[in-house]
Design a protein that fits this description.
Order of helices and strands: HHHEEHHEHEEHE
Helix content: 55-70%
Number of strands: 6
Structural class: alpha+beta
Distance between the termini: 58 Å
Length: 224
């Protein structure tokens, strides 16, 4: 019994550190799901995996052993609800998809630790950390413009060089997805509405100063 308790303890400790590492990564990016959540998911899933195997072995009947996959399948369903709660829509952008995937990954690692599959759990952890750290930077290099925003530019004259506006936007790493025009007879104002993708390191003050050099605009805003 003492040896078995030691094995269980090792499994729970490994699952703890796996959840800890993934939690630190999420918290470093200011996500709502952080260290405590992922540690608890990993450790609790590890315990449930241990429990499912224990119940199947201990309470087996004469006709055969119990099914250890019942608890595990239920855990995956429950984790899906937690992951869904991490997905949020902010304006035109959706946040939390990666966090939802990490919640599922953490649960899978915890279940693997509970079943004593240490090597697959550690390999999965290593792959997850590579994806989160290395591929995140690589993705930003290849696709720097990630945030969808709306740029409103108001002017009281129709003599506006839209090509210059587009040139300034592209020079600041902004990708134009769509352009719409609105006219207000009361204000006698034309408003250009650009749906764009902006990089994380966009300098809004630099952008506004460069737009002001093009012509006299009554107003312009950049928002989600």
């Amino acid at each position: 019994m003492t040896d078995q308790l030691l094995i269980y303890g090792i499994r729970l400790i490994i699952s703890f550190f796996c959840g800890l590492l993934l939690g630190i990564e999420r918290k470093s990016r200011q996500n709502a799901v952080g260290i405590r959540t992922l540690v608890l998911i990993s450790v609790s899933c590890c315990l449930l995996s241990i429990l499912s195997v224990y119940v199947a072995q201990t309470y087996s009947t004469d006709t055969g052993k119990g099914d250890p996959t019942r608890i595990i399948s239920t855990v995956i369903t429950g984790i899906g609800f937690i992951g869904g709660g991490a997905i949020l829509k902010q304006g035109l952008n959706i946040r939390g998809l990666t966090t939802a995937a990490i919640i599922l990954t953490t649960a899978a690692i915890g279940l693997s630790c509970g079943a004593g599959l240490y090597e697959p759990a550690i390999i999965t952890l290593a792959i997850a950390l590579i994806v989160l750290f290395v591929m995140n930077k690589l993705e930003k290099i290849i696709f720097p413009a990630v945030k969808t925003k709306v740029l409103h530019i108001g002017t009281t004259t129709s003599d506006v060089d839209t090509k210059k506006i587009e040139k300034v936007l592209k020079a600041n790493g902004i990708i134009i997805n769509d352009v719409n025009v609105e006219y207000s007879s009361k204000k006698e104002q034309i408003e250009l509405i650009y749906t764009v993708k902006t990089p994380d390191k966009l300098n809004p003050l630099k952008l506004s100063s460069e737009l002001l050099k093009i012509g006299k605009f009554s107003n312009f805003t950049l928002s989600n």
